Amino acid sequence: MKRRQFIQTVLATSGALIAPNLLAANNKKVNVKVIPSTGKALPVIGMGSFVNFNFPDDAETISQRTLLLDNFFSMGGRLIDSSPMYGSAEKNLGLCIKPQQSKNTLFSATKVWTSSVDDGVDEIETSRNLWKVDQFDLLQVHNLVSWQGHLETLFEMKKQGQLRYVGITTSHGRRHDELENIMLTQPIDFVQATYNIRDREVENRILPIAKERGIAFIANRPFQRGSIVDWAKKHPLPAFAKDLECNNWASLLLKYIVSHPSVTCAIPATTRLDHLVENMEALSGVMPDKNMRENIQNAVAKL
Fold first, then answer.
1. Cα separation of 28 and 176, whole Å?
2. Residue 27: what pLDDT?
3. Which of 118, 186, 216, 239 is in Cβ range 3.0-4.6 Å of 264 for a Cys bridge?
4. Is pTM beyond 0.70 here?
5. Beta strands, E only, 136-212
6. Where are the domains of the chain?
């Protein structure tokens, strides 16, 4: 059994905490991108929480998700993204993220979602208490809901030192024209939208504007809720994947996303430790250049 297969078997069956040097035999450096507005570095692979942390409060699942996050942080991850829209996700993140991780490692990113601007501050405070953080690193207006008023609130919070970054989100390719206008007229730090090997509309305008305006970009739905990886795994991994130090489709597809010059971070979500290992493989090693990105596009197009 190969070393990586052994690690994945241990992860899937025993729930062990895998040390980072077992996952990267040469202790490879974590791939990071710079947040344009501050110059601070951020690991290119984060974690979403839409489905994987929205579950009933039970001790067994809390324990498993805590182990999942232990491994995520141990492998070099930092950014976790959530929203009040995600059911019990924020509450469960607060239960699963350890205080030391929250203080020293976590890059906390959530959203304001209420349609009432007046209720926005209370919703943010509720989220902060659920996460058990002193303040958020990034607050985003979720799906452009009441964005004018919420952005005013978030900019004021940032001015008062209660927040590090302000962002706005959309998904599924919705309302890109409005998103472009916000990016061109508002001093936001982050934008979040859907980007993956199949959904590439943001390459036309959103990503160029992000580069022009110095806005960090978070790619959501990198696997279309897992459907892209499930489909790709029915086919052999391209031979050139070894040149990128990718041993699985998940890491190859994530490296395609985060190697775009204007993409800062991707946020795949998972409940499984073996899938986490595959995702986090994209956090180290060789990144695709322009020619290799074209090779990935062509290989996927032929599947």
1. 37
2. 63
3. 216
4. yes
5. 136-141, 163-169, 190-194
6. 40-244+264-301
